[in-house]
Design brief:
Shape: globular
Number of domains: 1
CATH superfamily: Carbon-nitrogen hydrolase
Number of strands: 18
Strand order of the largest sheet: 7-6-5-2-1-18
Strand content: 25-35%
CATH topology: Nitrilase/N-carbamoyl-D-aminoacid amidohydrolase
CATH architecture: 4-Layer Sandwich
Amino acid sequence: MSISFIASCLQTQPRPDFDSAIEEGLKLAEQSLNDDPSIICFPEYCGGLKSKNGRFIPPHTEEDNHPFLIKFKSFAQKNNVWISIGSIAISYNSKKYFNRSILLNNEGEITHRYDKIHLFDIDLGDDENKFLESETVNPGNQSSIAKTPFGIFGFSVCYDLRFAQLYRSMAKQGSEVLMVPSAFTKKTGEAHWHVLNRARAIENGAFVISACATGSIDGGGECYGHSLVIDPWGNVLADGGVGSRVVSAKINLADVKDTREKIPSLKHDRDFKLKIIDATKEI
């Protein structure tokens, strides 16, 4: 019997503090219940995000005391719904924090954690598009997947999207749904967001769910929006466009099995050696 379920992406705006992040999150979460989702998916830094001089400085605290996490533990339990908290900032030391994704079950219990591995250190040539996430974030060093009642989920965060080997490894371990919560910048999003998400779905024969923040960041920067749900063939099932809203789509895991049977590329990977030739010299 095939498993199908509704996933709702909450396309929130970057908020400078816990209270305003919770307020918007609750509003959209309540609205999403009209679609009867099995899982609600938040974007990266959904618990708050600011920047200063190209450094991300979201509000952060210890996990046990994080107000956004506490609020949505209660929401999950009250409404019998799973929640993917795309990421929140969890204190590491006096200078840095973890950019942590957390999965809550329908009883409000933490069933999975993932700390973002690849950090967003980029310079596109102007002050509005120069970021050094490594200045404030302590990176993770372990990928992970989680078995849920809806299938096997593989977890990542935002900039991880550019590292195809991460998703390949999760797919080969059975991941059927790849999660990419993001606060993708507008400039890179316009150029790369859709093609990268579609590529991760196509090359792994998996669904991709990418909740993405939308709008300006207090202190500089802008998020692209366009939260996506993509099927294993690369079809875009839902696109959130711009602005604060809910984006929902039906996931049928039979599509994963069907696609992987038609194009079993996950079974075709081969080890190989790389030979480097200096073509400026005569052989």
